[in-house]
Amino acid sequence: MEKTGEFPGTSLSDADIKEGKVLLTEWHPNLKYAWDAGVAVGRFLEELKQGRIIGTKCDRCGRVVVPPRVFCEWCFKTSDGWVYLKDTGVINTYSISYIAWDASRVEEPTIPIVVNIDGASPGMGFLHLLGEVEPDPAKIRIGMPVQAVWKPAEERVGAITDIKYFRPI
Ligand SMILES: [Zn+2]
Predict the structure, then answer these.
(1) Which parts of the chain register pLDDT below 70?
(2) In sequence order, which residues have a C-beta less than 8 Å from that of residue 125 and are 6 or more positions away?
């Protein structure tokens, strides 16, 4: 494990924990709870399970936003309805990432992107991954058109990961 001079310590990887290389204690609290995604994101996730991307519109400012919201924060009013969007878009921004969630270095980089979804207002989209392209800045560009690659219907659970990644088109 690597230590930094200024903040000495030992970083832990997922494997260190799973393989029991550190002292662990287990505790199973008897807690029962439900988490509500809310009206807008709840519908968004349910539509993802069906292989669709949905947003909401505001008739006052004319914006179509995604992920959907129950209110327009520009106009301080309730949204005016649902709008089905395409599963295509363009890359708003991207990064080539060589670190995993636990800050460990990975050999095969991922390419996180913010994708602006077609049919939504400019700049409206969400964070996802780019796939089927080499992690080379010469092969990726802002404004590059992309399309969602969906998991098979039987594997979708109503999560943003129902889209495996976006690929260039
Ligand atoms: Zn509005």
Answers:
(1) 1-5
(2) 66, 89, 92, 114, 115, 116, 117
pLDDT tens per residue across span 8-20: 777 788 888 889 8
Beta pairing partners, 109: none
Q: Are 56 and 43 in contact (CB under 8 A)?
A: no
Show the beta-strand stretches assigned E in the chain: 53-57, 64-65, 71-72, 77-78, 81-85, 88-94, 97-99, 105-117, 125-130, 145-150, 163-168
20: its two tokens: 């029991």
Going from the Cα of 1 to the center of ligand 1, the distance in angstroms, rounded, reads: 51
pLDDT tens-digit readout, 39-52: 999 999 999 999 99
Separation of 3 CA from ligand 1 center, angstroms?
A: 50
From the CA of 39, how far away is ligand 1's center (Å)?
A: 18
In this structure, are residues 85 and 54 in contact, taking their beta carbons and an 8 Å threshold? yes
Q: Which two tokens stand for residue 144?
A: 């590059």
Residues near ion ligand 1 (CB < 5 Å) are 58, 60-61, 72, 74-75
